[in-house]
Amino acid sequence: MKKDLKVAFFLGYKSIVNGHKSTIVLMIFILSLAFVNLVFLASILNGVTTTLNNQLINNSIANIVIDPQEEPTRKNYIVHTKELRQRIENLPGVVATVAHYNFMATFAYDKNKDGQWKYGSWPIIGVDPEEEPAVTGISEHIIAGDYLEGIGNGDIVLGADIAGGYGAAEEIKSLGGAEVGENVFVNFGNGINRKYTIRGVSKVKFLLVDQNAYITAKEARSILGLSDDRASQIVVKIDKTGNEDKYIEQIKEIAPNLKVRKWSEYTTMINSITGSFGLIVDIVSGIGLAVAATTIFILIYVNTVNKRRQIGILKAIGIKENIIITSYVLQAFFYAIFGIVFGSIIMFCFVNPYFISHPIILPIGDVSLTIKQAQVMQSIISLLVASLVAGFVPAWRAVRENILKAIWGA
């Protein structure tokens, strides 16, 4: 067996060394691009998913969301929030918690002060300006004006897709260019109307967040008529994403009646989108593998056709068929391995650094490549298997030809 393998290696080596150098270079280049294609497509999908998840965790709902109880009776608010938050923050690994006050409200804005009002309904979140930055990053994404501070009863921060005019994703549905220092009128669902001065405009490049407006928690409690320690929602930030289940169990022990969910339960729409992308990636990757396998097949097939006489002579002098087949399979592996090596150099030394420096700007945020080791290994194995099949089939067909016909070229 060992001797047979040595002979197969020798035959394969000689075939490659004596082959056309330009053909070898072109083959390796094609397989390099095939490998880059496999890794790149999966990495782009991973990057989209990573960006969406980070936007939710860092700029919207953190890791864990606590809502009022639904059973045995539905409540509108979480009570004794200060005590509850203190107990949750005492859990090792919890970074911080904040209370939110959530509304849906109708906005009215007269840009030119000529009675031509623009209207729209968007969510408003009441936040504590001093506590909120420890959990979400809205304060770091103010693109005009300033973030909320102090009591700020008459101030509001608008998301870019509410204000409009800041590269809003849905400009036609926005207020049409509301600017810092101007006034907007807000009608809340409980019938209360307030006039606010736009203190700032935020933009995180994520539609679901850029369609939020923010007022202070004190102002929110005033609108809701809350004089005691209640809140619409508590969001919890932990030190390591992925450990949410452990903390959810501990929080449920502290407050068994409250509804406690992790951030991933809010990603149904995101999962649907990325699932569709995944199908597209699988189809395109399959086509790329087929192209790579076909390219190897053609090269090996042409090689065996041109060397019919040599193959016949090898069989005539006693070289086993499996040795000849193995020599061609090893040639196919040679092309695939070098294609993978040079493809990895292209991917990790050029493509990935480029996207880190120049991420793709999408409505969901800035997307870079997220390369996973398991997917890289899957791509390597897929290309090697494709090369194995593509090298075996034409070689197997060639060695089955009659020796005399092969030698005389009949």
Helix percentage range: 40-55%
By oligomeric state, this entry counts as: single chain
Biggest sheet layout = 6 strands, mixed, barrel
Order of strands across the biggest sheet? 3-4-9-6-8-7
How many strand elements?
A: 14
Can you write the helix and strand succession as a string?
A: HHEEHEEEEHEEHEHEEHEHHHEEHH
Share of β-strand residues: 15-25%
The chain-level structural class is alpha+beta
Helices and strands, with pairings:
Elements: H1 2-17, H2 21-59, E1 64-67, E2 78-79, H3 81-89, E3 94-109, E4 118-127, E5 142-145, E6 155-159, H4 160-163, E7 183-188, E8 193-202, H5 207-210, E9 213-216, H6 217-224, E10 230-231, E11 233-238, H7 244-254, E12 259-262, H8 268-306, H9 308-316, H10 321-357, E13 360-362, E14 365-367, H11 373-399, H12 403-408
Parallel strand pairs: 4-9, 6-8
Antiparallel strand pairs: 1-11, 1-12, 2-10, 3-4, 3-7, 3-11, 5-8, 6-9, 7-8, 13-14
Q: Can you offer a commentary on this structure?
A:
The chain is of the alpha+beta class and 410 residues long. The chain has two domains: 2-56 and 270-408, no CATH class; 69-257, no CATH class. It is built from twelve helices and 14 strands. The protein has helices at residues 2-17, 21-59, 81-89, 160-163, 207-210, 217-224, 244-254, 268-306, 308-316, 321-357, 373-399, 403-408, and strands at 64-67, 78-79, 94-109, 118-127, 142-145, 155-159, 183-188, 193-202, 213-216, 230-231, 233-238, 259-262, 360-362, 365-367. The chain has a six-stranded mixed barrel with strand order 3-4-9-6-8-7. A two-stranded antiparallel ribbon has the order 2-10. A two-stranded antiparallel ribbon has the order 13-14. A hairpin with a 4-residue loop joins strand 7 (183-188) and strand 8. Helix 2 (21-59) packs antiparallel against helix 8 (268-306), helix 2 (21-59) packs across helix 10 (321-357) and helix 2 (21-59) packs antiparallel against helix 11 (373-399). The mean pLDDT is 83.
